[in-house]
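FYI - complex with HC0, inputs then prediction.
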Amino acid sequence: IVNITIDGIPVSCPETTMILDAAKMAGIEIPVLCHHPDLKVRATCRICIVELKGQRKFKTACSNEVWDGAEFISNSPAIRQARKDILELILAEHPQDCLKCVRNTNCELQKLANDFGLSNPIFKNEPKQIPVEDSNGVIVRDMAKCVKCGRCVEMCQEVQTVGAINTAHRSGEYEVTTAFDRPLQDTTCVYCGQCISVCPVGALYEKDETEKVWQAIAATDKHVVVQVAPAVRVALGEEFGMAPGSVATGKMVAALRRLGFDKVFDTDFSADVTIMEEGHELLERMGHGGALPLITSCSPGWINFVETFYPELLPNVSSCKSPQQMFGALVKSYYPQKAGIDPSKIFSVSIMPCTAKKYESARPEMSGSGYRDVDVVLTTRELARMIKQAGFDFNTLADEKFDDPMGLSTGAAVIFGTSGGVMEAALRTVYEVVTGKDLTNVDFEGVRGLTGVKEAEVDLEGKKVKVAIANGLKNARVILDKIKAGECDYQFVEIMCCPGGCIGGGGQPWGTTKATKEARMAGLYQADRDLPIRQSHKNPAVKVLYDEFLGKPLGHKSHELLHTHYHP
Ligand code: HC0
């Protein structure tokens, strides 16, 4: 423990504490731009400089540790002027179209410019003329706005190990780019959108498709249905001032109805169906042969990754479509039959915490119903935008319930949205199917949490099942390399593309950090505990689906509608 002062305020902290964090302990928020709490120290922007008392020496607060007796000044005329100068230089080449920018009012650079009162810039504004790249249909890159902080590059290179973007050139030509400046669709990009999550400005964002949905709602000949992913309900409230992790399911359903959707359904319904299909696929492979371990297939960024980087392991990947796509196929086959609606009139929208879901829905094979199964995918952020445009007060909406028959779901389904959730949901069902006994406790704590790689062994009354879970693609590589080398005897593996699972998806509200993910994860487990049914095979609406329509898991109709194939 060392003793220091910051702006005269005494602080005692471990000697490995960064000045930035020590300042927080003193209640002082030092401004940052390149710094992100979950990423490495980079100290490229220099905004966070502090002064050593009595010496005209600056130190970056994000990259320097404290030492005993140090006296730091974080607010002095020299510091304020230096920070202003840095901001002036960044703004000189930054497009100043804030009113039209997707990050207007939540841009980290805009906030700094506002805080430092840069209303009379000294330099002429000469932004680089770089065309906006939006040809891939998922991620938009407006590189003229890039502040070269490098957060997205670290995310793509080191956290996700995808390597689609990197830095190139030096000095004034230094830029974040793809190999040979190719469009994103000609790179290894998996569309996870994690680069978007950490971008401090409006250089990276998802392709906005809200207008297509507004038009469908306005069209009199369309029956517009919506499904909502598990992780959206614990993050959407943040857009309206709620604390991260607040379970806003009832208000979200009410809001979707107010927007004009004809039916408000739940992806959780088809997450329960996924467990029926995938659980039986696991038992089939364990009993009658087939590639083991079985690896989950619901995370579309992960599917893009395995197709690109580990095609030799595709036989291990479950043939189940993701819950989003199972829902899409059923809402244009089962639902119209049950509701007496012409399937050609159905317009199917999904609300996802994920950008890769936009890519997944556009895959040509995702048309098991005979139509495009999911017409438009919106992120959590896009849904929030629609609600803001509609102008009603989200916070005062009275809770409403999802519509039948595809709105009934279980606690097993809602935890799909966090790392370990698909595994836990599967175990809750597989245990009872294999043993014929009821679980006394459905909580499999060993598979929970944000640890990158988790392993567990589950005893199915004498039959042991070894499982592993990875979240984030770097962690996925750890397990995949072991499988390739024949060094593990897992039977079932869950892989989620984004760190933390869908709670940390690339379409979630900006400002997502490990702390927000922990709060959202707690929200999902709360939602699970609050539901009366917590195992997928006990979902009565799923039972009716199999009785009336599908027949049995892995049956002919299931294969037609709910299973898919991959592209090495
Ligand atoms: Fe997920 Fe899903 S849990 S991938 O993270 O399986 O996006 O939330 O909707 O499809 O259910 C995302 C979240 C989903 C799907 C589900 C799965």
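Residues 91-206 form a domain with the Alpha-Beta Plaits fold (CATH 3.30.70.20). Residues 267-288 form the longest helix (22 residues).
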